[in-house]
């Protein structure tokens, strides 16, 4: 079994790991033995603040800190060259150049802050006074007689002409930890148990693309009582788990969204007045007078709308959706376009049934929850019929005729991913998935079935009852 390299700069405490956080060690051990597959980094849309796809390639080389000489070489950092043998996501099974035997292999995260592009040491320390190229100590017998010749030979034979990570790698890695949003900024947040209501919330923590958002007492009209703290995860100091979402989540909107779209807003009077003025400016095509803490419309940009296609969209058209506010994400539901919103690209979609209005949600046309009529049948997914539908079996043609409704046009849905992209997802592959219900968890998971652009994911160690389906985007 290869080592899991401890990547810690000398004199600095190791990064604190979340207590009980899963390390993937068992799956990586199996992978080395030829068992197990992992979804590649380039299979996903951008899942970090910057695009790191170029990093995750087999046979790529980079420089890395060698800690074998920390005690003997105070003030000088030793580095050596590393070649990637295989990749599992951002984890690389690698070896130091000159140490190619199986026992010398190790696992390292390619986003580690002790990974550098080739020739980085020469670029930042031309005289090599603070940095030095030195092979790890386990190859000492091979080079002790002539260190310089050994190093020169390795560079000439193993490094020159090889593929390296980008020369911009260090800047890119630094940008991974520069969130676009800052703590204290305010936005508008869809109430996750009452989707007809929007509330004011604050960013209270950031982690890459992920934001912890909270409805704060200072922004809330009235007191937040103990019962609410017990049940509502979006509230400040709530007892349930914290509320984490991706910065592209359908749940968050810029300041003024509710006012622009005449959506019910739960906020204090001064905020309502402020958001009304923001909305008036936007509707006039003027630049709003935002508060410094406001998250603006330009901060939460959506994909542009094809107006030629948009004109084909009509109120009352039917579609299939993954209900984004459900407690289970295992099936598709029958849905209807209820309303067009003034903000370009936004519609109100309701789940067909007795509580269609109460179970409606504002979605951008590019949201990864909407699918054309017949998708579930074509790709072998369960389609839940409306709760007030009296017939034992559901048939779309019959239902459309009964409802005197049309299908949402196919060209309004997101383009289907290429075959090459979809081929990167295979049954049995491992990945990390953000739980759609308990959204503070990112869990080790395995693909158990594929349904077109939707994958069914099982959370490792959990029964299939807890499986969830995800669009690959």
Describe, in plain words, how this protein is organized in 3D.
The chain is 18% helix and 25% strand. It contains 12 helices and 24 strands. A hairpin with a 2-residue loop joins strand 10 (197-207) and strand 11 (210-214). It is globular. Mean pLDDT is 89; it is low at 6-16. GO terms for molecular function: chromatin binding; histone binding. MBT repeats lie at residues 141-268, 269-386, 394-473. One of its GO terms (biological process) is negative regulation of DNA-templated transcription. Keywords: Repeat.
Question: What is the secondary structure topology, with strand pairs?
Answer:
Layout: E1 3-4, H1 25-32, E2 37-38, E3 61-66, E4 77-88, E5 91-96, E6 106-109, E7 115-116, H2 120-124, E8 131-133, H3 140-143, H4 147-159, H5 169-176, E9 186-190, E10 197-207, E11 210-214, H6 226-231, E12 244-246, E13 252-253, H7 257-260, E14 264-266, H8 269-283, H9 307-310, E15 318-321, E16 332-340, E17 346-351, E18 360-364, E19 370-371, H10 375-378, E20 383-384, H11 396-403, H12 419-422, E21 429-434, E22 442-451, E23 454-459, E24 468-471
Parallel strand pairs: 1-6, 2-21, 4-8, 10-14, 16-20
Antiparallel strand pairs: 3-4, 3-7, 4-5, 5-6, 9-10, 9-13, 10-11, 11-12, 15-16, 15-19, 16-17, 17-18, 21-22, 22-23, 23-24
- Strand element count: 24
At the third CATH level, what is the topology name of the largest domain? SH3 type barrels
How many domains? The number is 4
Globular, elongated, flat, extended or rod-shaped: what is the shape?
globular
CATH class of the largest domain: Mainly Beta
- Could you say which structural class the secondary elements and strand pairing correspond to? alpha+beta
Tell me what portion of residues adopts beta-strand conformation: 25-35%
Mean pLDDT across all residues, rounded?
Answer: 89
Largest sheet: 7 strands, mixed
Tell me what the CATH architecture of the largest domain is. Answer: Roll
């Amino acid at each position: 079994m290869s080592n899991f390299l401890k990547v810690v700069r000398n004199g600095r405490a190791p990064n604190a790991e979340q207590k009980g956080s899963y390390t993937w060690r068992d799956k990586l051990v199996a992978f080395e033995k030829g068992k197990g597959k992992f979804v590649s980094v380039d299979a996903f849309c951008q899942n970090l603040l910057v695009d790191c796809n170029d990093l995750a390639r087999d046979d790529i080389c980079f420089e890395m800190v060698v800690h074998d000489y920390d005690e003997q070489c105070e003030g000088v950092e030793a580095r050596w060259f590393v070649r990637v043998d295989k990749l599992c996501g951002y984890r690389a099974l690698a070896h130091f150049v000159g140490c190619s035997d199986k026992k010398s292999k190790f696992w390292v995260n390619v986003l580690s802050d002790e990974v550098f592009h080739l020739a980085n040491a020469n670029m930042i320390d031309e005289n090599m006074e603070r940095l030095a190229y030195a092979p790890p100590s386990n190859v000492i017998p091979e080079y002790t007689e002539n260190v310089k010749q050994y190093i020169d030979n390795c560079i000439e034979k193993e490094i020159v002409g090889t593929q390296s990570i980008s020369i911009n790698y260090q800047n890119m890695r630094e940008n991974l930890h520069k969130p676009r949003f800052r703590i204290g900024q305010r936005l508008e947040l869809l109430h996750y148990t009452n989707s007809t209501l929007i509330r004011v919330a604050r960013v209270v923590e950031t982690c890459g693309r992920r934001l912890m958002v909270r409805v704060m007492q200072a922004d809330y009209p009235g007191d937040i009582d103990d019962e609410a703290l017990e049940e509502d995860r979006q509230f400040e100091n709530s007892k349930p788990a914290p509320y984490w979402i991706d910065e592209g989540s359908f749940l968050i909107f810029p300041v003024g969204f509710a006012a622009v779209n005449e959506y019910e807003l739960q906020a204090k009077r001064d905020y309502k007045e402020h958001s009304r003025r923001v909305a008036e400016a936007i509707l006039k095509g003027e630049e709003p007078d935002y508060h410094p803490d406001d998250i603006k419309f330009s901060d939460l940009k959506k994909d542009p709308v094809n107006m030629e296609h948009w004109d084909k969209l009509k109120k009352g058209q039917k579609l299939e959706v993954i209900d984004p506010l459900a407690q289970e994400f295992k099936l598709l539901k029958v849905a209807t376009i209820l309303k067009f919103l003034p903000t370009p690209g936004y519609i109100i979609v309701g789940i067909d049934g007795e509580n269609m209005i109460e179970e409606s949600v504002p979605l951008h046309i590019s949201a990864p929850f909407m699918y054309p009529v017949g998708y579930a049948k074509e790709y072998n997914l369960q389609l839940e019929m409306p709760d007030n539908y009296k017939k034992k079996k559901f048939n779309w043609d019959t239902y459309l005729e009964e409802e005197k409704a049309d299908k949402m046009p196919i060209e309004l849905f997101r383009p289907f991913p290429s075959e090459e992209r979809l081929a990167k997802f295979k049954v049995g592959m491992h990945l990390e998935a953000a739980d759609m219900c308990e959204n503070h968890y990112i869990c080790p998971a395995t693909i158990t079935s594929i349904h077109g652009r939707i994958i069914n994911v099982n959370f490792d160690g959990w029964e299939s009852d807890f499986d969830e389906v995800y669009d690959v985007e």
